[in-house]
C-alpha cells in the first residue's frame, strides 16, 4: 500500500466520514468511449480530490486498444484535465494513478478475462482493494451477454466471504419491454438483483434529489400538491446540442427511448409519488413503482403525442445542419429528435391532471425543469383588464442549468390602478449555498462503491417505463408520412404546440 497517502478523516466532525467508500476498485468496459472520458474518469478524480475514495482504490480499463498502463494513465490524465470539476492536485493525482491498470482484449477473449482476474487479484494484494470490484458496463446492450458470461467463467462475478462484486449498467436498458425483460433475465442470472446498479444519471443530480426535500421536508407545498389545486405539470428536458458524434447510438433509438423512458419518467415518478415511509431504498422504490403503475396514456395517441426531427438552422449565432445531414444518419431516417407525450396518473391525488413530458435536441436553449402549474383562483375580484397580464401560478423546479426553484404568482403593479401581473420569486443554488453541486456521476459512482441503491432504478421501474412507452412507439411506427421537421433553435414541431392547444394550454418558454 502506498505510504504517502494523507488520511482525510482527521476531524471527527467531518460530515464526509460516513460517505467514504471502503477498499474497492472499478473496471470500466467501454473505457475508450465518450462517456468514460467526459464523465466517469473526471468523476472518479473529483471523488478522490474530495477525499471520498479510499486509499486502496483502483481503476482498471478494459478495451481492445494496444495500450500499456502508462498510455491508459495518460488518457485518464487528459480527461481529468479537460473535464474534472475540481482543481487539479498533483498529489491526489499521483496517488490515484498508482491504482490504474489497463487490460487489453476483446469481449470474446477468454485469456483477456483471465488476465483481468489476475490483475484484480494483484490489485487486492498490492493496492488493498479487498476483493471488492464494480464492473461498469459502458457498452451496447448487445455486448452484455458475452461480458456477463466471461465474468462468470473467470470467477469474477463470485465474491468470497465479505467481498462484493457489483455490476453497473448504463442505458439504454433495452429498446422495449420485451428486450428489457430479456436483458434483466440475463443480468440477474449472473448477479443477484442487489448487486445490479442501473444508472439513470438524472437521479444523481442535486436538483432532482432536492425534489424530495422540497416535497417532504416542507409543510408549504403538500396541501396544494394534488388535483384540487394543480392544473397540469410540464416536464421539459430541452437541449441546444444536436446528436454530435452519436449517430450510431441515436439513429433508430430517438428522443423518446433515449430520454423519456428513463430520465423524464423518473422525474414524473418523483413529482407524483406519495410520501415514502422512509428514504430507505425499498420504500422509495415502492412509491415510485406505485405511481409508474398508475400512469396511463390517453386513448387517442395522435392527439396526445408529437414528434419531430431538427432541420438546419441557426443556434447561438452558428449555422447548424439538420438531423438528416448529420454524418452516419440515413437520408430517409424517421428517428425523432423531439418527442412530447401527455400522460395521466390514475390516483386519487392526480385524477384528471395531465403530465406533459417533452424533450428535444437543437431546441431554443438548454434547460431542464419541472413546472407545476396551478389552477386559476376560482374568483377574481378585479376587472378583466386589471388581470389581463395575470397567468397561472406555477412552481418551477429548475433542474439545470440555472439550478433552483421559482414560484410565479400575481402581484400588484405599482401605481394608482389595481393592476395585477405575474412576478417570480427565485431560489437559486448559486446564491444560497457556497459549495458547488457535485456532478451526478460523482454521487452515483460513490453510491455504487458504498452499495447504496436508492438512486438506481430497479428492474421493475425500468419495465414499467417501457410498458408506458411501447404503445407510443408502436403508434409512431404505424404512422405514415414520416416525421415533422422543426427548425434548429426553435421550440420543436408545430404538432407539439397543436397538442397543447387542443387542451387549451401552451408550452412554457423557459
Ligand atoms: C443522456 C442522453 O442520457 O442524457 C443524451 O443519452 C443527452 O442524449 C444527455 O444529451 C443529457 O444529459 P445532461 O445531464 O447534459 O442533461
From TrEMBL:
Active site residues of this protein: 263
Ligand binding (substrate): 201, 205, 239, 258, 361
GO process annotations (BP): glucose metabolic process; pentose-phosphate shunt, oxidative branch
Residue intervals of the Glucose-6-phosphate dehydrogenase C-terminal domain: 212-508
Catalyzed reactions per annotation: D-glucose 6-phosphate + NADP(+) = 6-phospho-D-glucono-1,5-lactone + NADPH + H(+)
Binding residues annotated for NADP(+), in chain numbering: 64, 171
SUPFAM superfamilies, per database record: Glyceraldehyde-3-phosphate dehydrogenase-like, C-terminal domain (SSF55347), NAD(P)-binding Rossmann-fold domains (SSF51735)
Enzyme Commission designation: 1.1.1.49
Biochemical pathway: Carbohydrate degradation; pentose phosphate pathway; D-ribulose 5-phosphate from D-glucose 6-phosphate (oxidative stage): step 1/3
Keywords in alphabetical order: Carbohydrate metabolism, Glucose metabolism, NADP, Oxidoreductase
Occurrences of domain Glucose-6-phosphate dehydrogenase NAD-binding (ranges): 27-210
One Gene Ontology term of the molecular function aspect: NADP binding
Keyword NADP: yes
GO cellular component assignments: cytosol
Enzyme class: oxidoreductase
InterPro entries with a match to the protein in the record: G6P_DH, G6P_DH_AS, G6P_DH_C, G6P_DH_NAD-bd, NAD(P)-bd_dom_sf
Annotated family: Belongs to the glucose-6-phosphate dehydrogenase family.
Function: Catalyzes the oxidation of glucose 6-phosphate to 6-phosphogluconolactone.
Name the record gives this protein: Glucose-6-phosphate 1-dehydrogenase
Native source species: Nakamurella endophytica
Gene: zwf
Amino acid at each position: 500500500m502506498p505510504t504517502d497517502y494523507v488520511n482525510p478523516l482527521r476531524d471527527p466532525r467531518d460530515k464526509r466520514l460516513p460517505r467514504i467508500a471502503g477498499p474497492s476498485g472499478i473496471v470500466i468496459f467501454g473505457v475508450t468511449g465518450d462517456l468514460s472520458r467526459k464523465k466517469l474518469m473526471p468523476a472518479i478524480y473529483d471523488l478522490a480530490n474530495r477525499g471520498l475514495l479510499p486509499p486502496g482504490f483502483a481503476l482498471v480499463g478494459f478495451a481492445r486498444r494496444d495500450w500499456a498502463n502508462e498510455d491508459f494513465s495518460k488518457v485518464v490524465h487528459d480527461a481529468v484535465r479537460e473535464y474534472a470539476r475540481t482543481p487539479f492536485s498533483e498529489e491526489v493525482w499521483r496517488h490515484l494513478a498508482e491504482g490504474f491498470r489497463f487490460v487489453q482484449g476483446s469481449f470474446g477473449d477468454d485469456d483477456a478475462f483471465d488476465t483481468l482476474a489476475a490483475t484484480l487479484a494483484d490489485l487486492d494484494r498490492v493496492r488493498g482493494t479487498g476483493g471488492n470490484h464494480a464492473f461498469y458496463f459502458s457498452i451496447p446492450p448487445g455486448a452484455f451477454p458475452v461480458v456477463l458470461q466471461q465474468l462468470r467463467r473467470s470467477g469474477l462475478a463470485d465474491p468470497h466471504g465479505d467481498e462484493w462484486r457489483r455490476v453497473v449498467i448504463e442505458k439504454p436498458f433495452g429498446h422495449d419491454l420485451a428486450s428489457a425483460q430479456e436483458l434483466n433475465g440475463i443480468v440477474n442470472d449472473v448477479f443477484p438483483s442487489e448487486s445490479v446498479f442501473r444508472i439513470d444519471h438524472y437521479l444523481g443530480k442535486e436538483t432532482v434529489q432536492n425534489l424530495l426535500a422540497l416535497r417532504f421536508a416542507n409543510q408549504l407545498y403538500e396541501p396544494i400538491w394534488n388535483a384540487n389545486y394543480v392544473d397540469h405539470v410540464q416536464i421539459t428536458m430541452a437541449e441546444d446540442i444536436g446528436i454530435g458524434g452519436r449517430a450510431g447510438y441515436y439513429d433508430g433509438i430517438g428522443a423518446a427511448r433515449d430520454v423519456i423512458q428513463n430520465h423524464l419518467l423518473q422525474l414524473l415518478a418523483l413529482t407524483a409519488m406519495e410520501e415514502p415511509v422512509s428514504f430507505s431504498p425499498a420504500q422509495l422504490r415502492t412509491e415510485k413503482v406505485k405511481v409508474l403503475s398508475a400512469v396511463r396514456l390517453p386513448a387517442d395517441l395522435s392527439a396526445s403525442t408529437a414528434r419531430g426531427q431538427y432541420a438546419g438552422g441557426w443556434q447561438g449565432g452558428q449555422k447548424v445542419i439538420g438531423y438528416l445531414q448529420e454524418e452516419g444518419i440515413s437520408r430517409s431516417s424517421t428517428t425523432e429528435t423531439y418527442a412530447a407525450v401527455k400522460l395521466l396518473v390514475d390516483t386519487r391525488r392526480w385524477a384528471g391532471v395531465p403530465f406533459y413530458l417533452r424533450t428535444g435536441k437543437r431546441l431554443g436553449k438548454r434547460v431542464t425543469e419541472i413546472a407545476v402549474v396551478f389552477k386559476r383562483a376560482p374568483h377574481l375580484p378585479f376587472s378583466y383588464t386589471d388581470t389581463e397580464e395575470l397567468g397561472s401560478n406555477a412552481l418551477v423546479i429548475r433542474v439545470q442549468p440555472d439550478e433552483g426553484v421559482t414560484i410565479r404568482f400575481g402581484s400588484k403593479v405599482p401605481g394608482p390602478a389595481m393592476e395585477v401581473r405575474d412576478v417570480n420569486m427565485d431560489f437559486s443554488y448559486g446564491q444560497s449555498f457556497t459549495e458547488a453541486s457535485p456532478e451526478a456521476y460523482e454521487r452515483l459512482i460513490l453510491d455504487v462503491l458504498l452499495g447504496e441503491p436508492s438512486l438506481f432504478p430497479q428492474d421493475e421501474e425500468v419495465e414499467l417505463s417501457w410498458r408506458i412507452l411501447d404503445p407510443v412507439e408502436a403508434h409512431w411506427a404505424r404512422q405514415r408520412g414520416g416525421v415533422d421537421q422543426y427548425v434548429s433553435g426553435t421550440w420543436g414541431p408545430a404538432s407539439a404546440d397543436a397538442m397543447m392547444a387542443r387542451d387549451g394550454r401552451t408550452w412554457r418558454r423557459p
